[in-house]
Amino acid sequence: MLFTIPLFFSLAFTLAGCGRKANEADCELIIDRNVEVQMKAMHIDDAPTIAKKQDELRAQMKDDLKDCEGRRVTDKMMGCVRNAQTGDEITECLR
Questions:
Q1: Bridge-based pairing state of the strands 72-73 and 20-21
Q2: Eight-state DSSP code of residue 63
Q3: How far is CA 85 from the centre of its chain?
Q4: CB neighbours of 89 closer than 8 A, spacing ≥ 6?
Q5: What is the average per-residue pLDDT within 22-33?
Q6: How far apart are CA 53 and CA 48, in angstroms?
Q7: What would the pLDDT profile of 70-86 be if each residue is shown by its tens digit?
């Protein structure tokens, strides 16, 4: 299975100067939502399978998660990520 996580760590969360610093939970949410929407697009709705893939990807992206922490996010941005239905929507949330 190929997962394309938006390059949110290098996209530079474009809202410089506003919002708050992203914490570990914010960064994990972005990865988890990407995994969830991509698996659902492949018609995989099994919660334990999705959770396992989320855990695997978070472990693989451990260093990237650390780079994400401290970037600027807003509550609106994170709410958008929570409600996004596709990877492209998540990418748009982070711009």
A1: antiparallel
A2: H
A3: 12
A4: 37, 80
A5: 94
A6: 9
A7: 999 999 999 999 999 99
Q: And the tokens for 60?
A: 């693989």
Cα angle value 30/33/35 (rounded, 5°):
110
Distance of alpha carbon 76 from alpha carbon 83, whole angstroms: 11
For residue 80 the two structure tokens come to 């958008």
Task: Check: pTM over 0.90? Answer yes or no.
Answer: no
Angle between the 24-41 and 47-60 helix axes, to the nearest 10 degrees? 130
Per residue, the 3-state secondary structure of 10-27, as one string, reads CCCCCCCCCCEECCHHHH
Q: Supply 48's token pair.
A: 């334990």
Question: What angle is formed at CA 34 by the lines to CA 33 and CA 39, rounded to 5 degrees?
Answer: 100
